[in-house]
Amino acid sequence: MSKRFVHSINYLRGLCMLGVIAIHIGSVALTNPTPNLGLIAVLEILSRFSVPAFFFLSAFGLFYKYPLQGPFSYTTYLKRRLKTVFIPYLFWSLFYLCYMSVAEHSYTLFRPLTLGKTLLFGLSMYHIYFLVILLWFYLLMPLWRYLLKKTDRHASIFFPLLFIGNVIFNYYSSYVWIAPPTSLWHDLFVYRLNYLVLHYIFIFFFGAFTAEHFPAVIAWMKNHAVFLYLFQGAAVLAMLGSYAGVMHYWQYSALSAVFTIHQLSPIGMIYTVSTLLFFLYQWECRSLSPVCQRLFTLLGNVSYPMYLVHPVWLSIGAAYLHHRHLVPDAAYILCLYLFVTLTSLLYSLLIQKISLPSWLQICLGIK
């Protein structure tokens, strides 16, 4: 018996895509010598749940499609995952390498050692590393299935311990550890966020557990609505308070504050969990207007090609601001956000409508 399509998960994909674009637009906003701190808080702080949320969504999709009690062929599964992630990763990596080489009038990025390093760590563009981590999660699927089977009956003990362990690991990785001088180990350390799945291990398992026990999770949320509202409110206030606090008490710049209060910080991890639960509750247990349903369905359906292409439109928009010597104040940043979102959306809709060869559809992430 086939499972029902989970609209709330698809809505979350669309919401997270909006959040990822916001984070990248925030990088442009931070180039303003006097950035709007409230706008930065929205773009770079409150949108931070989007990156780990995609690992939650990926794990949910995998375990919803391949539940622990159902049949699982690693070979068949891996062929499908490599087609949907690895091929688009290679295609878009090479595309962005060509794009940057033409823009900079330099082709040093295609030197063998540089190219190998770029592909290994996902360095062709600032967003493409996500696919590298995702590939490692996919390759290790038998391990995740084994561990979830072993811990499923003791979830009330396992998940708090896993969360605490992940917080400690991410704290040291983000704030304490210093890169070793040896060249090979130096690169492995410097680019650890680009491949090391341990940074997102809790949120991935949380997604897997949610998929395995989705009806029970929804029932729990219905009985704890007040808690979810309070949890989300407290997490939002904690994120904003931490952001303001490091600037006020430690005299951090807005850029330094963003590099401190991120998705792998302790409060960032709590905020990610609270936000996922909050929106799952809103979209599974409460009614959503038809307009919002259509909007988030549309965004969810095209979130993958939007993710892959949006840096192109962002670079064009940012180049225009630079060419016109425009200071990226709040009005220009909001216009840039709309420009990048709408052009990425239109591109994604267009390539789904036109007839393209099957191999190109795979490369573009629409098949």
Walk me through the structure.
It is globular and about 55 Å long. It has one domain (about 10-365). The chain is built from 18 helices and no strands. The protein has helices at about 5-30, 35-45, 50-65, 75-105, 110-120, 130-140, 140-150, 155-175, 185-190, 200-210, 215-220, 225-250, 255-260, 265-285, 290-300, 305-325, 330-355, 360-365. The chain is an all-alpha fold and about 375 residues long. The chain is about 75% helix and about 0% strand.
User: What's the pLDDT, averaged over the residues?
Assistant: 95
Count of beta strands: 0
Task: Classify the helix fraction into a percent range.
Answer: over 70%
Mind describing the biggest β-sheet?
none
Put simply, the count of helices is 18
Q: What does the radius of gyration come to?
A: 21 Å
Domain count: 1
Report how far apart the termini are. Answer: 24 Å
Low-confidence stretches: none
Structural class, from helix and strand content?
Answer: mainly alpha
Measured by DSSP, the beta-strand proportion falls in under 5%
Q: Give the overall shape.
A: globular
Order of helices and strands: HHHHHHHHHHHHHHHHHH
Transmembrane segments: 12-31, 37-64, 85-103, 123-143, 155-173, 193-214, 226-244, 264-283, 295-318, 330-350
GO molecular function: acyltransferase activity
Membrane topology: Multi-pass membrane protein
Protein name: Acyltransferase
